Automatic annotation (TrEMBL), chains A, C:
Its EC number is 4.2.1.20. Residues 57-380 form the Tryptophan synthase beta chain-like PALP domain. This is Tryptophan synthase beta chain. Transmembrane segments: none annotated. The keyword Coiled coil does not apply. The gene is trpB. One of its GO terms (cellular component) is cytoplasm. The lineage of its organism: Archaea, Methanobacteriati, Methanobacteriota, Stenosarchaea group, Halobacteria. PANTHER family: TRYPTOPHAN SYNTHASE, TRYPTOPHAN SYNTHASE-RELATED. Tetramer of two alpha and two beta chains. It comes from Halapricum hydrolyticum.
TrEMBL record, chains B, D:
One of its GO terms (molecular function) is tryptophan synthase activity. The gene is trpA. The active site is at 44 (proton acceptor), 55 (proton acceptor). This is Tryptophan synthase alpha chain. The alpha subunit is responsible for the aldol cleavage of indoleglycerol phosphate to indole and glyceraldehyde 3-phosphate. It comes from Halapricum hydrolyticum. Keywords: Amino-acid biosynthesis, Aromatic amino acid biosynthesis, Lyase, Tryptophan biosynthesis.
Length: 427, 276, 427, 276
C-alpha cells in the first residue's frame, strides 16, 4: 500500500476526478472508505481481504522458473502465475477487494463494466461469493463474441445488461455503467476493472493488485537469491502491470517493462477515428477519459479513437494515470508487441511450458522473444491470465496468418472423414 | 446578451438543450433557431464528445448522430457563428475537447479564446468538477465567459462551497438522482437543493427529467430562476430524423414544445405568487 | 504413500494385471519404477514431483470454508479447491507425476486416452512442461463434442489421434491407447487417467492424487481444530475420490462418501447394452475390464455396457479396484446423484459460492443437497475441477429441464433485438 | 481331435482365426468350414468381447460386426456345436466373458464346463496372463481342456517360467512387437523367441502379422510348429461384407487363402530340411 502519495489521487499531472457532479458524493464516500478500510485496515478489512484471497482465490500464487524459456533466451525467466488465480486471471484480486469493500461500506448492489468479460466474470464470482446482487454492463458486440464469459457471469448469478449504443464495446459499457452509478449512487458500488477511472480507483485497484509484486518480490529473493533485473507485464488499463510493478518501483535497479498491444500497426487512421493498436502509453497523448487525466488514443480534436488489438482485454483507448506518470518519469518503459508476435508467443508458451496464456499475457512473452537482450539476466514475467477464454479467437486468428509456431487443427477434418489406420495389429 | 442580463429579468428563464449538428449541420441550425422562436432565453448547445458518460440514452444517441454527421469542435464554432439567434449560447461539453484544443501546450485557454471569439457566453463541462476547474475558470475570467457548475441533490456542503467560489452565469441544479421510472415528485428534491443554495448570488436553473409545461411550472414554483430541458426536445429531433420528416416540420414541433415549456415556466411564477 | 499393500496390486479380490502378454514387460518395468521412484524416492523423484506440483501446478491448494453452503445445510462445509490446480482439475496431480516418472524411466514418448478431454489436456500440459512428445487418443464422437479441450491439447503441442471404432468414446480410446502401448512398449509410457487399469496404475495414480487428502487433513485440523465427520467426492474412475480419501482411510471415524453419476435412472437396458448411469460401485458387479478386476456395468453375458452421465468425466463403465474393495469392506459408502440434481447443484454452487464447478464435481454437491444429514457436522467436499469446460453442455441440458435454480440466458436474444432502455437520463 | 493329436503329426499346423458370427451367424458357419477345407489344422474361433483391447483395427471391426449381428457366449456355444468341422476349435476371447458366465458365484468353471460340452479343445484368453490364470487352469484340468498362453518377444525369463508351468496344447508365439509398417524381418525376432522356449514340451505356433504363404514359409523355417493367421483372413470377410459378395464367393476366397497359407507352411518344412 502506498500511503505516501498525494491525497487527491494525482500522479504528476495525471489522475484526478473528472466525473459528473452527481457521482462526486460516491467518489468521496469511496475515498473515505479506501482510506479507512484499505489504507488503515479499519475493522480488519485488509485481513479479511487477504484471507479470502488465500482461501477463495488461491493465493499465494507460485513464482515458477520457466526452464525452456530460460534456455531459449539464455536468461533466467520466472513466471508469476496469476493464471492460477480463481477465475483464471489477476482480475479477481481487484474484484474481490472492491466487492468486499462495498460490503463494508454497506452497499447493496454491485455494478461493473466488462469488455472481454474477464473483469465481469471476476466481479460476478466475487459478488456471488460475498452474496451481493450484481449487474454487468457489456456491449452487445462483445456479448456476441464472448459467449463463454457471458455464460459464466449468468451462471454466477449476475445480470448481464447489453449496451446497444455505438459500437457496443468496452468504451460504451463503461459510459453506461457510469450512468447507472450516477442514478443509483446511494446503494450501489461500481467495481472498475483496472487502474483507470477517477481517484481513488487507480490507487485502490493498484493496491488490491499489488499483492502480485509483494509475493513475487519475496519469492524471487528466495528462489534466485536476489531481485530481478526486470519485470515484464502486459498493459491494457494496466492493473496487472501496476500489480506486478508496485513493490519494485522503489527498487530502481529493476527495469519495469509495460508491454502494450501494438495491434496491426502503430499508425492511426484519423479520418476513421481508429487506432489499429492499443498503445496509449507509447503513442497516445494527454487527455481526460472516464474520470481521469491520462494518456489516450485520441484524434487531434480530442475525440477518443477506437483502439484495436487481437486481445480483447488490451483493447482500450486509455491507460492508468499512474502508469502514464511512471512512463513520463522514466521509471516504466513502455514497449509494444503486435498481434502476430503475440499469437506466436501464445503458441510458444503453450508448447514449451505447458501454460496456455491469455492473449493479453502473450504480449509480454512476445516482447521477451523480440527483445531478450532487454530483460537482463533475471526477469519476472507476469502471467496475468490463462487463455481458455481465447481459444476460438486464437484458432481463427492463427488460421488467417502464416505463423512459425502454430499447431494445425486438421484433426477436426479427419474425424468422420473415414477411418484412420490403427498403429497396432495383433494378428 | 450576457447571461447576467437574461436572469436579471423578472421572468424565469427557459434554457433548452440541443446537440449541435444533430442530425445534420443544416437541420440543427434550423432547430436551434426554432427554439429561440419558441421562447428560449438561453441555449445550451451541446458540443458532441465521443464518450458522453453522463448522458441518458436519448442525448447519447443525439451525440452519436451529430458526430456521424461530421460535427467537430471547429465546425461547432462555425455553427455558433452562423446560427441566427440573439439569446446567449452556453457550450455544453466534456473536458477533453476543451483540453485538447490547446494542442501540444494543452490546457483550456485556446478553446476559451476561440469560444469568446464566436460569441459563446459560458460553459457547462459535464465531467469537470469544481476541484479540477481552476485552469478553465482562469481562462473564462480572462475572456469574460461564465462557468456554470452542476449541483446535484447529493452534493455535500464542502463541495457546494468550492463550486460557489468558482461558479458564474448560473448554477445548474440537477433535479434528482433517482432511477428513471421511479421518480418521486420532482419539486420536493428540487426545493431542498434550491434551499441549500438560496443565498448564492447566481441564478439557479433546474434541469433533469423536465418534459412538459406542467413540469416546468412546478419547477419554477419550487423556486427556480430557470428551467433546463434537453431530452424532451432531443426526442422531437430524433423522431423527425427517424420519420424522415421535413426539417421545417420538426422545427415547428420544436418551437411548439419550447413554447409549451416556456409558458409553463411563466405560469410557475404566477402560481408561486398566487399560492403565497 | 501406502507401502503396506500387497505387492501384486490386489485390493481384496480386485485389481490385478489382466493385460495382453505383450504389455507385461512394460507393466513390470513400471512396477519397478513405481517402487523405486515413487515409493522409495530414488534420485529424489518425489522431491522433484512435489516441487513441480507446487511451482507449476499451484500447490498447496486451499481448503476453503463455504459460508453460504454451511448456512444452508447447517453444517460446516469445507471445499478442497482442486479446481484451482493448473489446468482446472485434479487431473494434473497424476499426469505430472506420470510424465515425470516416464522421464525418469528414460521413456521418450507419452500416450494417453481421454474422454471428456480433461485427462488429455492435463497430460498434454505436463508433457509440454517436461518436453516430452505426446499423443492423445480420443474417440471421434468426443472430439466433436469437446472441441475446446481438443484445442487445448493441440495448442499444448500434443497430437490428438481420433479413434473411429465403435461409438468413438472413452472405452474405445482406452482400447486404442493400450494397442499403441502394446506396439511401442519400449520407448513409450501410457499415462492412465484414473485409478483404473492394471497394477501398478491404481496404486500409483492414487499415490499421486493423495496429495489432496494429505493437504486437506492438515488444513482441516488447522482451520477446524479436528478431523471432519465426512469427506465427499464424486467418483468416475475414482482418482479424485481416492485422492481425497487416501489419508483419511485409517481415520475410521471419518465417513468416506463416493458420489457416482446416477444419470437419468439406475435401471439398465440390457437389450441395448446401455446403462443410463455410471454407478458401477452402487449397481455394478465384479468383472475384468481394462486390465483390472473391479466392479463394472456389464450385461449378464459380461459384455460391457455403455454408461451414461450428463458429465462426460464420470461416464465410464468401470471404477478403480481399490474403491470397489473399500466399498465391499464398508469403509467407503457408494451413493449416487442423477443428472438433474447434479445440474441444480452446479447452478447452486455457482450462484451461492462464486465457484463454477465441473459437472463431475457438481455430483458431490448434489449429494450434499439431497442428504445433508448424512455428512455430519463437518464435511470436506472435494471440488475436483472447474466447470468452464462444461458451459455449453450445462446451457443445453439446463434448457431441456425445468430446474429450480437455473439462470435464464435470454440476454443473447435481447442483443440485436432492439434497444434496451438506459437507466439514467441526465436531462 | 485333440490339440496334441494335431501337433503330433510331422506337418506344421495351420491355425487360422475368425471371429464367430462375423458378419452373421450363418455366413460365419460357412467361413469356418471353408477354412477347414483350405487346410486348417486348428481353428482359433473368436468369441467377441465388447472391449477388445488387444486387437488391431481389422479384428476389432470383425468383433464389432459379430456383436452387432447378435453373437453372445450362448450363441457361440451353439455355433461350435453346429459348425461342421473336424479339426479342434480353440476359443479365443477375453477373460470377463469367461468370468461372468459363472453367474453370481463367479469364476471360470461353468464356462469351461459348457465349452467342454460343445467340444471346444482349448482357450486363448488374450488378457489373462499366467499369473492370473490359476482358476481357469484348474477348470481346464477338470474338464480336460488346454490353456494356451501367448509369449511375446519381450516376455521376461521369469514370466516364461510361470507360463511354462501352466501352458498346455500349444504356446502362441507373438512374432513381434514392432509398429505396423516398420517391421523388420519377422523370422529373426521369431527365431530368437523360439530359441528361448525350445526346451518346452508344448508345440510352438507363431502368429502376428502373417499374411501370405511366403510369410508362413519363413515362420516355419524359423522353427515354428504352427502358423497362426488372423487379420489376413478377416480382411477377406470384411471385403466380402462391404462388397455385398455372395457368401459362397467369400468362402471360396477364404478357402484359397487358407490353402496358400497352409501350402506356404508346408514349404517351410521342406525348406528347413533343405537348408540344413
Ligand atoms: C488476462 C488479462 N491480462 C491483462 C488484462 C489487461 O488488463 P490490465 O492492463 O488492467 O491488467 C486483461 C483484461 O481483461 C486480462 O484479462
Ligand atoms: C473435474 C473432474 N472430476 C472428476 C472426474 C472423474 O474422474 P475421477 O473419478 O478419476 O476423479 C473427472 C474426469 O474427467 C474430472 O474432469
Amino acid at each position: 500500500m502506498s500511503t505516501d502519495e498525494p491525497a487527491d489521487g494525482s500522479f504528476g499531472q495525471y489522475g484526478g476526478q473528472y466525473v459528473p457532479e452527481v457521482l462526486m458524493p460516491a467518489i468521496e464516500e469511496l475515498e473515505d472508505a479506501y482510506r479507512r478500510y484499505v489504507l488503515d485496515n479499519e475493522d480488519g478489512f485488509m485481513d479479511e481481504f487477504r484471507e479470502r484471497l488465500a482461501d477463495f482465490g488461491g493465493r499465494p500464487i507460485p513464482l515458477q522458473r520457466a526452464d525452456r524459456l530460460s534456455e531459449r533466451y539464455d536468461t533466467e525467466v520466472y513466471l508469476k502465475r496469476e493464471d492460477l488465480l480463481h477465475g483464471g486471471a489477476h482480475k479477481l484480486n481487484n474484484a474481490l477487494g472492491q466487492v468486499l469493500l462495498a460490503k463494508y461500506m454497506g452497499k447493496e448492489r454491485i455494478i461493473a463494466e466488462t469488455g472481454a468479460g474477464q473483469h465481469g466474470t471476476a466481479t460476478a464470482m466475487a459478488a456471488a461469493h460475498l452474496d451481493m446482487p450484481c449487474e454487468i454492463y457489456m456491449g452487445e458486440t462483445d456479448i456476441a463474441r464472448q459467449r463463454p464469459n457471458v455464460f459464466r457471469m449468468r451462471i454466477n448469478g449476475a445480470e448481464v445488461n447489453p449496451v446497444t449504443v455505438g459500437r457496443g464495446t468496452l468504451k460504451e459499457a463503461i459510459s453506461e455503467t457510469m450512468r447507472d452509478w450516477a442514478t443509483n449512487v446511494e446503494d450501489t458500488h461500481y467495481v472498475i476493472g483496472s487502474i483507470v477511472g477517477p481517484h481513488p480507483f487507480p490507487s485502490m485497484v493498484r493496491d488490491f493488485q499489488s499483492v502480485i509484486s509483494e509475493e513475487a518480490r519475496e519469492q524471487i529473493r528466495e528462489k534466485a537469491g536476489r531481485l530481478p533485473d526486470s519485470v515484464v507485464a502486459c498493459a491494457g488499463g494496466g492493473s496487472n502491470t501496476m500489480g506486478a510493478f508496485a513493490h519494485f518501483v522503489s527498487d530502481t535497479d529493476v527495469d519495469l517493462l509495460a508491454v502494450e498491444a501494438g495491434g496491426s500497426s502503430l499508425t492511426v487512421d484519423e479520418a476513421e477515428g481508429v487506432a489499429p493498436n492499443s498503445a496509449s502509453l507509447s503513442t497516445g497523448n494527454e487527455g481526460v477519459l472516464h474520470g481521469a487525466r491520462t494518456k489516450l488514443l485520441q484524434d487531434s480534436d480530442g475525440q477518443i479513437m477506437e483502439s484495436h488489438s487481437v486481445s480483447a482485454g488490451l483493447d482500450y483507448s486509455g491507460v492508468g494515470p499512474e502508469l502514464a506518470h511512471l512512463v513520463d518519469e522514466g521509471r516504466v518503459t513502455p514497449v509494444n508487441v503486435g498481434d502476430d508476435a503475440a499469437l506466436e508467443a501464445f503458441h510458444r508458451l503453450s508448447q514449451d511450458e505447458g501454460i496456455i496464456p491469455a492473449l493479453e499475457t502473450a504480449h509480454a512473452f512476445g516482447y521477451l522473444e523480440e527483445h531478450p537482450e532487454e530483460v537482463g539476466d533475471l526477469t519476472i514475467v507476469n502471467v496475468s491470465g490463462r487463455g481458455d477464454k481465447d481459444l476460438e479467437t486464437v484458432i481463427e486468428e492463427t488460421a488467417k496468418r502464416d505463423l512459425d509456431v502454430a499447431p494445425d487443427m486438421s484433426v477436426f477434418e479427419q474425424v468422420g472423414a473415414g477411418r484412420l489406420g490403427s498403429r497396432g495389429d495383433r494378428e | 446578451m450576457s447571461l447576467d442580463a437574461v436572469f436579471d429579468s423578472e421572468e424565469p428563464a427557459f434554457v433548452p438543450y440541443l446537440a449541435a449538428g444533430d442530425p445534420s449541420y443544416e437541420a440543427s441550425l434550423e432547430y436551434v433557431e426554432a427554439l429561440e422562436r419558441g421562447g428560449a432565453d438561453v441555449i445550451e448547445l451541446g458540443l458532441p464528445f465521443s464518450e458522453p458518460i453522463a448522458e441518458g440514452s436519448t442525448i447519447q444517441s443525439a451525440i452519436v448522430r451529430a458526430l456521424k454527421a461530421g460535427m467537430t469542435p471547429e465546425r461547432y464554432f462555425e455553427f455558433v457563428e452562423e446560427v441566427d439567434v440573439d439569446v446567449p449560447i452556453v457550450c455544453m461539453t466534456y473536458y477533453n475537447l476543451i483540453f485538447q484544443y490547446g494542442g501540444s501546450e494543452g490546457g483550456p485557454r485556446k478553446f476559451v479564446e476561440r469560444a469568446a471569439d464566436v460569441g459563446i457566453e459560458g460553459f457547462v463541462v459535464v465531467d469537470l468538477p469544481a476541484e479540477e476547474a481552476d485552469p478553465l475558470r482562469e481562462a473564462c475570467d480572462e475572456f469574460g465567459l461564465d462557468l456554470i457548475f452542476i449541483v446535484a441533490p447529493t452534493t455535500t456542503d464542502d463541495r457546494l462551497e468550492s463550486m460557489r467560489e468558482r461558479v458564474s452565469g448560473y448554477v445548474y441544479v440537477q433535479a434528482r438522482t433517482g432511477v428513471t421510472g421511479a421518480r418521486e415528485d420532482v419539486s420536493d428534491q428540487t426545493a431542498q437543493t434550491l434551499d441549500r443554495i438560496s443565498d448564492w448570488d447566481v441564478p439557479k436553473a433546474v434541469g433533469f427529467g423536465i418534459k412538459t409545461g406542467e413540469h416546468a411550472e412546478r419547477i419554477v414554483r419550487a423556486g427556480a430562476d430557470g428551467v433546463i430541458v434537453g431530452s424532451a426536445l432531443v426526442d422531437i429531433v430524433a423522431e423527425g430524423h427517424e420519420g424522415d420528416e421535413p426539417v421545417a416540420e420538426t422545427a415547428e414541433k420544436l418551437e411548439a414544445k419550447a413554447r409549451e415549456l416556456k409558458t409553463g415556466a411563466l405560469r410557475g411564477v404566477g402560481a408561486a405568487v398566487e399560492s403565497e
